[in-house]
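Good morning C.,

I know you're traveling, so I'll keep this short. The sequence:
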Amino acid sequence: MNLIQKFKVIAGLPTFHVLLALCTCHCINDLLQSVVAASYPLLKVDLGLDFAQIGLITLVYQIAASVFQPVVGYAFDKHPFAGSLPMGLVCTSTGIALLAFSGSFAMVLCAVFVLGLGSATLHPEASRITSLASMGRRGMAQSVFQVGGNFGGSIGPLLVAVIVAPHSRLYILWFLVVSAIGFWVMGIVCRWYRGYLRQARSQAGGKIPHKPLPLSVPRTVFAISILMVLIFSKYVYMASITSYYTFFLIQKFHVSISASQICLFVFLFATAAGTLVGGPIGDRYGRKPVIWASILGTAPFSLVMPYSNLPITIVLSFCAGFVLSSAFPAILLYSQELLPNHLGMVSGLFFGFAFGIGGIASGVLGSFADTYGIEAIYDFCAWMPLIGLVTCFLPNLKTKAKMIQ
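The tokens, ready to paste straight into the viewer:
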């Protein structure tokens, strides 16, 4: 069954409308979250901030959006609540309003902290509900969910440039219209999730049923550690592209700013396409082969790219983005299969770790570029995908499941 046939199958499921709603929720959340970084130039001018203060804003946001994700996930794993997603959007909407009216640096920090809490609530909860609504096709469902976030994060800065930048920071309030759409869409998810919880509790005597772990606790901890190493390698390389690729192209090939942005869009488009493909392939062949092919398979493209001409560099960046981005749905689902009773916590752990690594790597690579030059980033980061070799230490859960049966 090819990808199109598989998509038609899942589109016929009774929960497909829930998956589309979750995809839209992820799109809206990441669109609203992207307003923070896109507003930095406005904040710098309005409040007279220096770059150190801009860095502190990023740090506070990353702490709220990263550290609290597994905490929120664990809390709702223990006490599932059908209204969890609207709670996150309330935080995000409040943060948007505070950001529009912030008249001081301290108020901006409060705004981004509240915004970060909204992201920390949505990602683990929406990812958990996506798995529950997948009807066994978890890879395809997770890919659909992830694509929504990729799309929202890419169009947020564009909307800020069109709606806010020509006027004033108060125009950020127009994004509350997007929040209102989000509340409406979340109503679809909440109604389904409420019914799911009611049915699950009635079948288990008032309690949410627990599933056995596929591995022993020590082996589970070891496997989670390997997955986090893989996330580290993926997001360090991703940070080198998303943060510094345009500067690399401008310096090495002397392209214009607009041309460099088009090249970055090519990479981002490839990551969205790879995310959509990675999940269903994992459903068919298992998570571990996808992780192998995705992380380690990026190495040939990343290692050649620093030494190529402009057209080949663009092609290689597309291939690297497409192959590498297929890893995250597979890694996330593998981790959920390791801990089937803590879907929210493990989703929050990996989303939060990915966000944190991306933020830290961007800062470290910036200092590296100041010292050694922008091209040195790609000479160094090109080796990151080779860390994918540690995938060989991951147990084959598909084989384990067959043995248990």
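Safe travels,
E.
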